[in-house]
Amino acid sequence: MNSHRKIPKLPGAFAAVMFLALSIHANAQTPALASWNDGPAKQSIVSFVKEVTDRSRTNYVEPQDRIATFDQDGTLWVEHPLYTQAVFALTRVHELAPQHPEWQQREPFKAVLANDRSAMANFSESDWEAILAATHAGMTTEAFQALVKQWLATAKDPRFHQPYTALVYQPMLELMDYLRANGFRTYIVTGGGQEFVRVYSQSVYGVPPEQVVGSSILTKYEYQDGKPVLMREPNVFFIDDNAGKPIGINLFIGKRPYAAFGNSPGDKQMLEWTQAGSGARLMMLVLHDDPVREYAYGPANGLPDTKVGTFTPALYEEAKSKGWDVISMKKDWKRIFSFDK
Amino acid sequence: MNSHRKIPKLPGAFAAVMFLALSIHANAQTPALASWNDGPAKQSIVSFVKEVTDRSRTNYVEPQDRIATFDQDGTLWVEHPLYTQAVFALTRVHELAPQHPEWQQREPFKAVLANDRSAMANFSESDWEAILAATHAGMTTEAFQALVKQWLATAKDPRFHQPYTALVYQPMLELMDYLRANGFRTYIVTGGGQEFVRVYSQSVYGVPPEQVVGSSILTKYEYQDGKPVLMREPNVFFIDDNAGKPIGINLFIGKRPYAAFGNSPGDKQMLEWTQAGSGARLMMLVLHDDPVREYAYGPANGLPDTKVGTFTPALYEEAKSKGWDVISMKKDWKRIFSFDK
What is the ipTM metric for this complex? Predict the structure, then answer.
């Protein structure tokens, strides 16, 4: 036996490091962005990553500054016809109704309990605030997280007959993986509830709670049986939408993103803020133009600007004029959900 | 030449990994916690770390949950006789005075400009708020950071004749290093200004901006020459002190710390919140009892409870009754500053 072929005894730490190196190699064998068609969107992503990770280029970015921010609803998972968190809130209204007989006569609860879809579609911001206060507050942070977890474990979307957490876009999960494999930290920057999203961010997106920036209500430090708890109060603390997104990014991260992904006017300022930084930046908007596999709304069916939460024709024009990339779900994505054939 | 001694050609990635392994080994040769005397404080730290990092123990903690939070003023660096950020604010009042002739007759500015130390020592919270609004707001976040950076580069502490950033406690830097080497992420959780501390947190403490949780003022998203900026408004947004510390920890990190370090009543709730978690937790308070090398205040010289920002006798009693560890600067620390002989 040739002595060169002997496997030397390695110290433990060194062996662990070798194992790590082999794992990285194994991961590299799965093709990145497998659910993306070869097209302009995929090309933009790959070129950008090459640009900022190649030390020989002037636009090289140090790993600690590689921040990518993702809107959630409509960007990472289905938001149509209703945000998942809104479905949770409406379900809670039904569950809590027996304890609130007055809701049968009081709006907006009356409309919810009567399943009056047209009334619900026209709920004002203060209607939603009343619903959130009634369903998301008056309990500890831990109790709230337990409620969300329990609901997500059983609730299913009526069209796809899947748990809501399965309605994430497979290409976007691959994009997050690809960015992380290239040294990026991926943050969720959502108009939705920060405490809500943190319940499943790690298991669904691989994003730890500390990398979820979202809207929040006030919490109060109290004692229950001598033990400190954080009670959720029925008052808004921070709205992480529109201008709130760059404000939240500065507040929570303190660094400007190099890449930002959204789908609606609420993401406009986040993309602007990202683009205003120096060097190479990637700004992308998801266009919902696939009525067969998902939905078509916004510019794809000429929805007016007034429709809250959707990618409007005006935003589409702005994207074109500013050089933001538009991701066509229909053209750029081979498959949309992991359960798609 | 014996062929066994040949250095084989390694693929680039593998060579990089080997280099990393060698670097880790090199670090391991510097003794951890070198500026700590062998005593109960060091013993508590080492035992706790062993407890939560040993997979065979029931109190083992997964690396992603290893969170350690540090108060800054009086815990990581000198806070006596005045917080560094307050020195910055007072200096700014002097600098801005020519543009504000009315300050000569208006408190609290009049007292600052007259260097009236006894008046300044009795400034109320609203006096300080007026000073902060006048000195910390009305500019973009970037302009503010540049100002802080510039000031820190030249300002010196009158007693030690050192830049303020040199007045960090060497044993606490080693403690942060030791925790990080054991998989912890170290956060600063300060009553001081988040944007202020973020300017130097990486270079001074090895703590990146996104791991600084602090007090903040409102920011507003605006356009200057078509470019988006965040303007600092003269209104408080969040006070990260007392109950604000656990609230801030939940808001920014979303995980309960396993170790927390403070020195004053403002840190009490953070330590309580940490201790209320399950498994092994480490709660420590720095006692300023070394008038020769630093200062003696709080329980060390019987200061009354009313003195804001100091480790009070009441807190000292609470620490003893709750089993929190007290770090005696005099007994537990071999040296206090890196410039000490």
Answer: 0.89
